[in-house]
Design a protein that fits this description.
The chain is α/β, with parallel strands linked by helices. It has a single domain, classed as Purple Acid Phosphatase, chain A, domain 2. Strands 1-2-3 form a 3-stranded parallel beta sheet, with no helix packed on it. Strands 4-5 form a two-stranded antiparallel sheet. Strand 2, helix 2 and strand 3 form a beta-alpha-beta unit. It is globular and about 40 Å long. The two termini are 25 Å apart.
Amino acid sequence: MKLPVVLAVLYDIHGNLPALEAVLAEARDADAYLLGGDYGTPSPWPRETLERLRALPDATWIRGNGERWIFERPEDRPEVGEAYDEFMPGPLSEDELAWLYALPPQAELDGVLYVHGCVVRDDDTFATAQPSPVPAGRAERHAPSQSRQRRHAPRRRCARGVGGAT
């Protein structure tokens, strides 16, 4: 598939509808969207977030660990299971939850592979060090007071023979 002129890439929304609306306002000239997972289960506004994302034109969706954890709770992270037990199913129907869980784990657009986390695991990252903190003011402006989210550290990595590395 050929990439559009302007592709908005959105990851780790975590049901934060005010932040999503702010990002979409800045991305109003996007021709298409790559939605990279962790949309909002569990979260403050799961239904509203899902409805807003479904209204986007020409959107490609992939599944994040948040969608996988709907039906596959991580045994090594009991706090995740507790959060899902407390907030799930929430306002989303079983059909909607099944649809989110069934999303593909990756998408390729114009030769670029998009995944959530890293290619091997959707709840892992390529990061070799802790990500830098969010600049003051940004997180406070949009984060809900009861947010339970973890950060993935976006990085561009090239393997030998992939992405131009030799």
